[in-house]
């Protein structure tokens, strides 16, 4: 990540503010990996947060790269286990439901409704593919489970 603008750091050698690179490396991968997709952005000119509905493809299988050289289980493979989906246009309004993998099946939990769904339905929650689409149902929190839970 490039750190710039108002977040530049002071360089003692050249006595000026400089852009810099920030990087986080993982040393020990967790058994359950939770990823929060940043779907909301505060826009100062409107003085409120807006939902970001752009397309974010989340895979059913995930391998983490760019981990620490001395990482434990560096080749750990994850399977998508659950997705929290946000429906709506704003951070203070809308509805949430969950999609959870149970054994070999995907189940959609929406209040008191539970439906079995096909894995291909996940694509419906990636976000907008064009500005014409008006779907506001987007994946928001992803839960991945390690294949080797040790």
UniProtKB/TrEMBL annotation:
Transmembrane segments: none annotated. Keywords: Hydrolase, Protease. Pfam families: UCH. The keyword Protease applies. It catalyses: Thiol-dependent hydrolysis of ester, thioester, amide, peptide and isopeptide bonds formed by the C-terminal Gly of ubiquitin (a 76-residue protein attached to proteins as an intracellular targeting signal). It is an enzyme of class 3 (hydrolase). GO terms for biological process: protein deubiquitination; proteolysis. One of its GO terms (molecular function) is cysteine-type deubiquitinase activity. Gene3D superfamilies: Cysteine proteinases (3.90.70.10). Residues 1-147 form the USP domain. One of its GO terms (cellular component) is nucleus. InterPro entries: Papain-like_cys_pep_sf, Peptidase_C19, Peptidase_C19_UCH, USP, USP_CS. The keyword Metal-binding does not apply. It comes from the Eukaryota. Its EC number is 3.4.19.12. PANTHER family: RE52890P (PTHR24006:SF733), UBIQUITIN CARBOXYL-TERMINAL HYDROLASE (PTHR24006). Belongs to the peptidase C19 family. This is ubiquitinyl hydrolase 1. The lineage of its organism: Eukaryota, Metazoa, Ecdysozoa, Arthropoda, Crustacea.
């Amino acid at each position: 990540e490039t750190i710039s603008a108002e977040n530049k750091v002071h360089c003692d050698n050249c006595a000026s503010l400089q852009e810099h690179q920030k990087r986080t490396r993982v040393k020990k991968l967790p058994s359950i990996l939770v990823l929060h997709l940043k779907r909301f952005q505060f826009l100062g000119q409107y003085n409120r947060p807006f939902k970001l509905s752009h397309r974010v493809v989340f895979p059913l299988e995930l391998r983490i790269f760019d981990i620490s050289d001395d990482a434990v289980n560096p080749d750990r493979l994850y399977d998508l286990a659950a997705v929290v989906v946000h429906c709506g246009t704003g951070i203070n309004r809308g509805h949430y439901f969950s999609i959870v993998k149970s054994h070999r099946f995907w189940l959609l939990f929406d209040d008191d409704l539970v439906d079995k769904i096909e894995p291909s339905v996940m694509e419906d929650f990636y976000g907008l593919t064009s500005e014409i689409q008006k779907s506001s149902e987007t994946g928001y929190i992803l839960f991945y489970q390690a294949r080797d839970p040790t």
